[in-house]
Amino acid sequence: MDESNIPHFSKKILLLSILFLLINATWYVLTVFTLQGDPYRTVAPKLVFAASAHDIQIQTQYDKEKRSAEANQELISGTTISTGELQFAEIILENNVVRLDENTEITLLENNFVEYSTFEPTMPRLIFSLNKGNMWINAFDSIEVQSPRSTASFAHSVGSITYNEPINRLMVITGSADLDLFAKEGEIVTSYTVPLYNQITYLDTQIVSEYSQLKESKLKKELKMAPIASSVLRDDWVVRNTAVDSNLANIKDTFINSELSYSIKSGFNKVRSLMTFVPQTKRKLTIERAEIMLGYLLGGIQKNNDTDNAMLVLNDLSEVINSMESDPLMKELLTETFFAIGSVKINSPADLVKGKLMRYLLSQDGPYVLRSYLSDLRVNLNEFKLEDAEKIASDWIGAWGKTIVKENLQEFTKQSKMFHRILLTYSDRTTGTLLSILDESGKLRMDSSNDMEETRFVLAEEWLEISGALVANYRYVAAKQFLKNSYESLGIDNLEAVSQASQIFTEKAQLIAQRIQYAEDRMHSAAKAIDEKDFREYMQMQNRDDMLSENLKEFLQIDVEPEEYTKGPEIKDVVNKIAKSRVITLDSDIVPTTQSPFVFAIVKARLIDRADDGSQITFSATYDYSTDAVNNVVVGETPLNGSFALSDLVEIISKTKAEEIEQTDSGTDIYDLLGGGGEDEALRAQATAQELAKQLVVNELKSAGIQTAGFDAIEVLDALTLTKFRINEAYIPNPENEKAPLKIKFDFSTSTKKATNIIMSDGTTFEKSSVPIGELSNIISGGIIEKKREENALSVFNEAVTNNSLVVNPSDVVVRGDGNIEFTNMYIPAIPIGVSGTFNSTTGSFTSFSSEISQANNVQPEEYFKELGAIYINQFLEEKGMNVSEDQLTLEYPFDKITVKGYMLGSEPYSFDIDLAGSSLKNITSEESGGVIPSMSFEEFLSIVPVEPVVEQQPVEQQPVEQQPVEEQPIEEQPVE
């Protein structure tokens, strides 16, 4: 070998050796520090509650009784959690939150949550049993809640479940919830998918096994689903939980806002993953790299709205995802990120990321994930972003396709119904494109259905609801166009007369068509409400059969002019519509807002009718032309909280009403079909639920012996849980007069079964703050009897006290349960010493006396107090240095005068009266001379020396005691020498 090459060769060897050592060192470090333990360890949910909550009770299957819960303690399956009055709790498992309202009891049945597991829609992570009360579910994964006759399943959705036997309520705020209803025997009667912002209320007893034999079209008439009423959404529990949920951070990754930081992190992780040969380490590093890319896409790129850069990073992300396509860790990361993104602006970087993740999850989990489109649709319609809503709906129907629909018909049917409910809720802003997509979804359902007639029947009802809602929102042209499309898509013209779908469509479509015809003839399809009185007159002038019975097809086939769906009413239309509620505004008083073409600010409005005092009533508000509702109301300078129908507001702020506004008759097909979509339907559903709850309250009170004055006397205090009521007029038996029952008012909780804030008919508050409802009637009736008995006993007692010249404070007198009376601090005015004892009101006699001086039983007051007085006076005189024998002391009950006679002072006897209160002697009289001194103290009396008696009329001050020395006392008291 050439010597000149030796150093060069040595350098290569050295470099290779160093590189080998670095690779081995890196391998060792990565192996040691990145080895993972068991990837499927169980994760336990934790119980969280406020530090001030002391009434949270838990009981595991190993506990004999309930015990106080500890904050942040982990829960095991089989644990029951209970909250009391004004006590709330949370159960948290990573991004899943379950909140317990007051007076709620649940049981954690199963915990199937394991770390690094994949998302399985059919496998609930947590399963609860709701025994009573109200739960708030924020399910980032999958949570199932069971009640005696139903099971609700949440996944990537938020909602509330209430169960107070036998009332059930399911409310969905975001996403959707699947609801299974069970017959008493345990078999599934039917399954529902409740979409966002909708609710369903039902009774346990309502679910019967015969329902399983009914088709869905019949079940819809038994179990009605409706939008959530605004009164429920304003409930403190809903508002509080919604506010807390909005602050939850579902994406646990830190956003990367710097391109430099992203390049360093991404490059470093890429190099690390290439350098290691340990599968577990490489897996973890690849996941970390995907997290970095997602953090950058949703951080800096989203912030700068850099879609070009987003596409580049997305391409790199696709390579990383493809390298671990079936890995549970990768799937969990992408699933969490997808559902955490929420609703985003169309065509933004975050929207591109969401679309990429959607396609991945669609290939992994199937079309269940497409429900996210419907959540975004509702958000955009709510914000009046109609173009974005149309794109989302198009993406949703495009993601399905005929092949996927046939393979997943049940899921597509559920999502199609959710799409229908959203459009029904927002019928005032539904565009022609959205209606076309609804039409297309119906055709897909019919093409893939195994029961064409049943599907056609269900679609006919759904689409007629949409048409009716369009009419109710003054969308006459749109209603006619959609009726025409429905008529053609459902093939009504080709159906036989016996077809139920044909019959229902023809009958109800005629009702809608009559209103559209009226709008075209009399209103020129203007965007304003149909005057019901004019409409009835119009119908009387027309021959219904001649007009539409045979010509519905012809009516629908007339060319329909396209409608400008987003065009709102003109100012003059708003002024004219407001005037129908007897409210005057000028054009200048109405100001359009950016919120919606149908929302206006009323700067100043004046009521036609003046107040009782003759003053003009004015107000300002925000006015929704579509719903004829006002909010942000300010009357004078006084704000009114809440949203009101304009006519209701007029009635609220004015004491008198010049004329009644004629309302549409309820109970008719026209009213039921066209009276509402959206909020009207929600209000009717809420009213139905409240009437149902009131009926149960009436029955429960009746079983407790309490009669109510009817439903109008019952006020719902909690519109969400329907467990708190104010009974403004109730009656219980009157023990004193059976024909005149007692009237009471109270609050009643069906969860605690207790009455509170009890007020009697005379306006007085009942002494007990809380009474079990089953005992209320007896307690009040018994209380009246007890009070009467006490009054009688006190009357007898007070008479005895007065007759015996005794004095006692009423607060020192207690009537015992046996009718006897206990008293303390009873006394005779002349003797300042308190006496305790008992009095038998039945016999009218004192049974015992007790004082610090003496005790006695079954004696008369005069006898006892004479003895007590004698003892007390002797003790009193002894303390003053005087000894009085029994025959010298004269006591005349009730001791108005206490006299001592024959008291020897020296050789002369004296008599005098004792003033115990003044601690002095009165009328001191010398029995020998007859002289009288009006008053002296005991010290003065004991120090006097016999002198010539003074005339009684002489004043005391002319006989100074201090001039009578003690040494001049009589000699007979001195022993003789």
Descriptive report:
Helix content is 40%, strand content 23%. By secondary structure, the chain is of the alpha+beta class. The strands form five sheets. The chain has a 15-stranded antiparallel beta sheet that branches. Strands 16, 17, 18, 19, 20, 21 and 22 form a seven-stranded antiparallel beta sheet that branches. Strands 23, 24, 25, 26, 27 and 28 form a six-stranded antiparallel beta sheet that branches. α11 runs antiparallel to α12 (409-425). The longest helix is centred in the last third of the chain and has 31 residues, at 773-803. The termini are far apart.
As a percent range, the share of strand residues is: 15-25%
Multimeric organization:
single chain
How many distinct helices? 26
DSSP helix fraction: 40-55%
- The radius of gyration computed from the alpha-carbon positions, rounded to a whole number of angstroms, is 45 Å
Sheet/helix structural class:
alpha+beta
Q: Can you tell me the residue ranges where pLDDT is under 50 for at least 5 consecutive residues?
A: 35-41, 655-677, 947-954, 956-977
Q: What general form does the structure show?
A: elongated
Q: What is the topology?
A:
Blueprint: H1 6-34, E1 46-48, E2 57-59, E3 67-68, E4 73-74, E5 79-82, E6 89-93, E7 96-100, E8 105-111, E9 126-147, E10 150-164, E11 167-174, E12 176-182, E13 188-195, E14 198-203, H2 216-222, E15 225-227, H3 230-233, H4 236-246, H5 259-275, H6 279-304, H7 307-323, H8 328-341, H9 349-365, H10 371-382, H11 386-407, H12 409-425, H13 432-448, H14 452-472, H15 476-489, H16 500-523, H17 532-541, H18 544-549, H19 552-557, H20 571-579, E16 583-584, E17 590-592, E18 599-607, E19 618-624, E20 629-635, E21 638-640, E22 644-645, H21 646-653, H22 669-674, H23 678-703, E23 707-708, E24 714-716, E25 724-732, E26 742-749, E27 754-760, E28 770-772, H24 773-803, E29 813-815, E30 820-828, E31 831-840, E32 845-850, E33 855-857, H25 861-879, E34 889-892, E35 897-905, E36 908-915, E37 920-926, E38 932-936, H26 938-942
Antiparallel strand pairs: 1-4, 1-6, 2-3, 2-5, 5-8, 6-7, 7-9, 8-9, 9-10, 10-11, 10-12, 11-14, 12-13, 14-15, 16-18, 17-18, 18-19, 19-20, 20-21, 20-22, 23-25, 24-25, 25-26, 26-27, 27-28, 29-30, 30-31, 31-32, 32-33, 34-35, 35-36, 36-37, 37-38
Helix pairs in contact: 5-6, 6-7, 6-8, 7-9, 8-9, 10-11, 10-12, 11-12, 11-13, 12-13, 12-14, 13-14, 13-15, 14-15, 14-16, 15-16
